[in-house]
Design a protein that fits this description.
The protein is mainly α and 892 residues long. 59% of the residues lie in helices and 3% in strands. This is TPR repeat domain-containing protein.
Length: 892
């Protein structure tokens, strides 16, 4: 997702205070700019400039607020190719030249004042005092001028750098276009028909690499200009005071504190104009593209400007929770009204919160970020729990408002640059808060039939649900946070007791149960991040790989724990009338994204469970593993995880695709054997491929059977409920009609005895009821045919080998059957034949070709082992899955 970044600097005007030392610098000319990522470029505002005061000042002070300094406004939207190509760099250079001219005017004013006092015929102590003051002011103005001159140099240097990087990108695009390829507005090579895939990908990679460097150069330009703007603001503010302008670089914290307090006051009063002025003074962007990408990759950065870090730390402390959320609310309203500048400002606000509180972010030789850098009332909201609102002075209305604030905060953080990680402590607290919100909704469902208590508004449930998902999504960007939340290991220190919240003990079991069992409206997308990182990190070296493999080995304990029966059998751990494993199967069906993520984990870690010889799930030393250790999974543990991963369509596809790729890679390596003996490698390294195929096939097939059983049970239950409902209705009708019917006539030929009439009445009624509402016949489950699966597998493994032979140039174009008839192994389109379509005589020729290459024994052994595995693990009757899920049978 592309997220616009920020805007930049506006004139340093201070509310209710003369803007001392502000010079009339011309504003940038009108220029469109649109960006793909969080980058800042001159915004398309109508050019505004104000004439410099050229008259000789009557005192030593330069022009005041009547001629305020105008910096170019920068905005960040999507870097589209069409708009980037239209950028006018010469216009920016013209702005720099005009800024330089205005700076020189400033120095002329200062020089004139000093020279005037130097040349006057005035002597004595009063003259000396006046001249000393003029000289001091002249020196301060000279230092201010030096700050402006540094801005000119920074702007010129970075604009040239941006232009050079753009030329490289445009050159890459031109290279692709010269070959007839089309490059769209998002820098994507679109020609799929006239250019082969490898050529298209090669040019796309070149464009991507060049664009990334260009993108980073733009964000660095905006960042350095914004940083220097803070210096000029500080220098102008100090001018005329008792402080030295040279101390400007130490004033950022004071500015942040003043702006934060002013923001809190403006939000409380609803003063939008004041909010806009404060936004214009905030340094933006806080992070360069390189820094944002580094944080998204979990890498620490120590390049954040010290002044920026000081400003935002003080700003947040003074703005407080209400100021931050109020600012976000006003920006969100503008964004929804179509203001791209507001969207950019919200992104910078979110980035700033994440950067200032991240322990891996610092300035050169400066302190690291910290959760404590956020204001206490904001931390109180994040780390507080719903039970804190049960008491004499708080209740549902206050809790409802707290949940709304949390949801708004989560939505704000979601506007940050994609992937920027929270710090460890903030991430853990966000994850815990998400679990608390989900748990509250689950309690409402369990105890109040899904109805929120009085004090909540309509729509609050959806707000709480989305807020919990947003907080969890941000928290799980950080893999260290994921590890701690899942295992309870390496947790940060518990936040100190505050007025708004009390720290509580963290229980990873409760956390996992809440997060994975809650039925998420996003299908478990945010929750699935708690598993996805294992797939990404398990193949990494060092601490990252060790953590991921540790969690992988513990997944059976999380999702399919076992216990021993009296006779020593290991069965799924019970959970009331069911088992923990079955409860998780139901949870994975309710949240299919969890199955997707687990399939990703299992698909990328096949070596951990390929062998059926592991007697327990643990972590063992492995010199071939990047981290030096690899998780191994006991066979039944792995099979249950595969079953869980197969509860979604995407999960099933991912598992089978991963297995086939793993198998194809091994076969390809065997066919490329230097000795020309592929059977040797297949016998030693491929001995478990057939069982692996069978186990994954069983998991996928049994998962489909389980889901069909659930649907069939629902269908049968619905039919039975309909039948019983109609029966009840019939009984009511009967009581109102037949049971109250008067017997016609008394005595004589028309008399019907009461006893006889009752029999006729009941028998006639029952017959009518059976005709009108026959008792439903329970439908039974058709189970998969193992013979069909085995047949398909035989074709599949032969197809795999034929395809590999073809890819390595070892597949002959044809062979001969027993009758000497030619059998083509390559079809008319030049591709390997589809094994499913070969005739029995053609199959003979194919098998002979495999025999000549020493592969037929592997194929036959594969089919036999696969059949054994299928027959051992495939659910073929009602109790099979019940035993697999709970360790117990219900019908036999």
């Amino acid at each position: 997702m592309c997220v616009p970044l920020r805007t930049v600097w506006q004139p340093p005007s201070r509310t209710g205070k003369a803007a001392r030392g502000q010079v009339s610098l011309p504003q940038s000319p009108k220029q469109q700019s649109s960006l793909r990522a969080p980058i800042c470029v001159p915004r398309s505002d109508t050019a505004r400039s104000q004439p410099s005061a050229r008259s000789v000042p009557t005192n030593s002070r330069p022009p005041t607020s009547s001629s305020r300094m105008h910096w170019p406004r920068w905005t960040c939207t999507m870097l589209k190719r069409s708009q980037v190509d239209a950028w006018n760099f010469e216009a920016v250079r013209e702005w720099i030249r005009r800024t330089s001219s205005s700076r020189q005017d400033l120095m002329e004013h200062a020089d004139s004042t000093r020279n005037y006092f130097r040349d006057v015929e005035w002597q004595g102590s009063a003259y000396s005092a006046a001249y000393d003051r003029v000289a001091q002011d002249h020196d301060q103005i000279r230092k201010l001028s030096g700050e402006v001159e540094e801005l000119e140099q920074i702007a010129f240097q970075h604009i040239s750098d941006v232009e050079a990087h753009l030329r490289v990108v445009q050159g890459r695009v031109a290279d692709a276009q010269a070959l007839g390829m089309v490059v769209d507005d998002a820098w994507k090579v679109m020609d799929y028909e006239n250019v082969d895939p490898d050529t298209r990908k090669a040019h796309q990679d070149l464009i991507n690499a060049a664009f990334w460097s260009f993108e980073d150069s733009v964000s660095r330009a905006a960042q350095r200009i914004a940083e220097q703007a803070v210096e000029i603001r500080s220098a102008g503010d100090l001018l005329g005071s008792s402080l030295d302008v040279a101390d400007a670089d130490s004033q950022a914290a004071r500015f942040g504190s003043e702006d934060g307090k002013a923001l809190a006051d403006a939000v409380a009063k609803g003063d939008q104009a004041a909010v806009d002025r404060i936004l214009a003074q905030m340094p933006q962007p806080i992070l360069s593209q390189y820094e944002m990408d580094a944080l998204a990759n979990g890498t620490g950065i120590d390049t954040l400007p010290a002044s920026t870090q000081d400003y935002y730390r003080s700003f947040f402390q003074q703005a407080g929770k209400e100021g931050i959320l109020g600012l976000n609310e006003q920006l969100l309203a503008k964004e929804r009204a179509g203001d791209p500048l507001a969207a950019a400002q919200r992104t910078n606000l979110a980035n700033s919160i994440l950067a200032i509180s991240n322990e891996k972010v610092s300035s050169p030789n400066g302190p690291n970020g910290s959760y404590q850098n956020l204001p206490a009332d904001l931390r109180g909201m994040i780390s507080g729990r719903s039970e804190d609102f049960i008491g004499a002075y708080t209740g549902p209305p206050e809790l409802a408002e707290n949940f709304r604030d949390l949801s708004a905060f989560g939505e704000l953080l979601g506007q940050s640059h994609p992937g920027i990680e929270p710090g460890k402590e903030l991430g853990v607290e966000l994850g815990r808060q998400a679990a608390d919100m989900a748990d509250y909704l689950d309690d409402v469902d369990k105890n109040f039939n899904g109805n929120l208590p009085t004090g909540f508004d309509e729509g609050d449930r959806e707000t709480i649900e989305s807020g919990a998902a947003s907080l969890l999504d941000i928290a799980t960007r950080n893999d260290e946070v994921n590890y701690s939340l899942l295992t309870g290991n390496d947790m940060p220190e518990v936040p100190a007791v505050g007025e708004e919240y009390k720290p509580s003990r963290f229980d990873p079991n409760e956390f996992r149960n809440t997060i994975f069992h809650h039925e998420w409206s996003d299908d478990g997308a945010a929750a699935s991040n708690l598993l996805e990182w294992v797939a990404d990190d398990s193949g990494k070296p060092g601490e990252e790989g060790l953590r991921a493999n540790q969690v992988l080995s513990q997944l059976p304990d999380y999702f399919a724990p076992t216990e021993l029966t009296e006779d020593g059998q290991r069965i799924p751990k019970s959970d009331g009338d069911s088992s923990v494993f079955e409860s998780n199967v139901q949870a994975f069906n309710a949240n299919p994204k969890l199955a997707d993520a687990l399939a990703h984990v299992m698909g990328t870690n096949i070596p951990s469970y390929e062998s059926p010889l592991h007697d327990e799930s643990t972590v063992k030393p492995d010199p071939d593993a990047p981290s030096g250790q690899r998780a191994v999974l006991e066979t039944t543990d792995a099979n249950r995880l595969l079953f869980l991963a197969s509860q979604s369509e995407a999960g099933r596809l991912l598992l089978e695709t991963s297995r086939q790729e793993y198998e194809a890679d091994l076969i390809a390596r065997a066919l490329a054997d230097e000795r020309g003996d592929p059977a040797r490698i297949l016998e030693t390294q491929g001995n478990n491929l057939a069982q692996l195929d069978g186990r994954i096939t069983n998991a996928i097939t049994n998962a489909l059977t389980y889901q069909n059983e659930q649907k069939l049970a629902e269908h049968n239950n619905a039919q039975q409920e309909t039948y019983e409902n109609r029966q009840k209705a019939g009984e009511i009708v009967k009581s109102l009609t037949l049971d109250n019917m008067e017997i016609p006539g008394k005595g004589g030929p028309g008399m019907i005895g009461n006893a006889v009439f009752d029999v006729i009445k009941d028998q006639g009624y029952e017959a009518a009821m059976n005709k009108w509402n026959p008792e439903p016949t329970t439908e039974t489950m058709p189970y998969p045919d193992p013979e069909k699966i085995t047949y398909d597998t035989g074709n599949s493994i032969r197809q795999q080998i034929v395809d590999s032979l073809f890819q390595q140039g070892q597949l002959p174009e044809y062979g001969f059957d027993r009758s000497g008839n030619r059998v083509d192994f390559v079809d008319e389109e030049g591709r390997p034949v589809d094994i499913r379509n070969v005739t029995s005589t053609s199959e003979e020729a194919l098998n002979e070709m495999l025999r000549e290459r020493g592969l037929i024994d592997f194929v036959n052994r594969y089919a036999a082992q696969h059949t054994t595995e299928i027959l051992a693990g495939l659910a073929q009757e009602e109790d099979d899955l019940e035993r697999f899920l709970t360790g117990k049978a219900t019908t036999k």
